[in-house]
Amino acid sequence: MLTFTIRRLVLSIPTLLFISLVIFMLLQLAPGDPMAQVPLTVPPEVKQKMREALGLGAPVHVQYWKWLVQFFWIEPQVLIDHWFGTALSEGKLRVISWQTRSPVMDIVMQRMPQTLWVVGMSYVVGILIALPIGIYSAYRQYSVFDQVGTFVSMIGFSVPPFFSGVVVIVLFSVQLGWFPSIYDTTHVVTDWDSFVIQFKQMIMPVMVLALQTTAQISRFMRASMLDNLNQDYVRTARAKGLRESAVVLVHVLRNSMIPVITVIALGIPGIFGGAIITETLFKVNGIGQLLLTALFANDLPMVMTLTFIFAILIVLFNLIADVLYGVLDPRIRYD
């Protein structure tokens, strides 16, 4: 297992470099000018100096190499300086946002807590609800509970977030007045009352996003459980006199979790990507909204950094899913 993990980590390096190159070249072909938002009163010679300061006058391969050095060498040094109080990155040029003229990673770290609070919490809530529903729906196939679960899952799959988000805002915020429609990102939790305010403003966006997560994972869990409930090893376990709870929750559940892990693991990078539509609806200043504003402003360093971070997370959690396969299924061995 250790050899397999190391081999996969080594192979992921050229994969990520190729992905970064593809992202960079695609963004270079995108139309628009990052200096378009500069006021018209700025003289042309000043604009030219700003263009050179942003690295826009350099050849494409020079810009790509500069970004690689900044992302893989300088930004880790900044992180080390933050943790240990050193000065490794002092005076070195970091990845700068064309829109804000600030370091990209500083802006990402400012937005990350909001995304983890809302989108991350919705993913955890969706998984905790989906797994029991999928297990019980498969065990009680075609029961009333199974029919209701199937109906709710179809709604979760079919209704897009921009519709369900507007519905919950109109119902619970405008009509009933229970929850705020705008997420206050400046709110700080210091006592019980402030925690209640934070909890209330999180309910609606978490509800909208958790509906989709629950619908997807519960259907995968149900289908995987049904595939294993009629296997020979299940009949053998029951013939040996094992309790039904042990048969379902130990033998069947362990094998059924193998394909579900892939869905869960590959969905985790989406947490850091945020939910662009939901964050926009509820005014959550998270990573998803940051990516959207960067795309509109043609902020190539910001867009490239965010998309490459998502690519790293996808490769990483693919590896984690493969390792968990060997943990859950004793038939799988990585020699």
Automatic annotation (TrEMBL):
Record keyword Membrane present: yes
GO cellular component, one term: plasma membrane
Keywords: Cell membrane, Membrane, Transmembrane, Transmembrane helix, Transport
Subcellular location: Cell membrane
Domain ABC transmembrane type-1: 112-321
Signal peptide: none
Cross-referenced Pfam families: BPD_transp_1 (PF00528), BPD_transp_1_N (PF19300)
Entry membrane topology: Multi-pass membrane protein
Gene3D superfamilies: MetI-like
TM helices/strands, residue ranges: 9-30, 115-139, 151-175, 195-215, 260-282, 302-328
Keyword Transport appears in the UniProt entry: yes
GO BP term, pick one: transmembrane transport
InterPro entries from the UniProt entry: BPD_transp_1_N, MetI-like, MetI-like_sf
Family the UniProt entry places it in: Belongs to the binding-protein-dependent transport system permease family.
Protein name: ABC transporter permease
Native source organism of the sequence: Sulfitobacter sabulilitoris
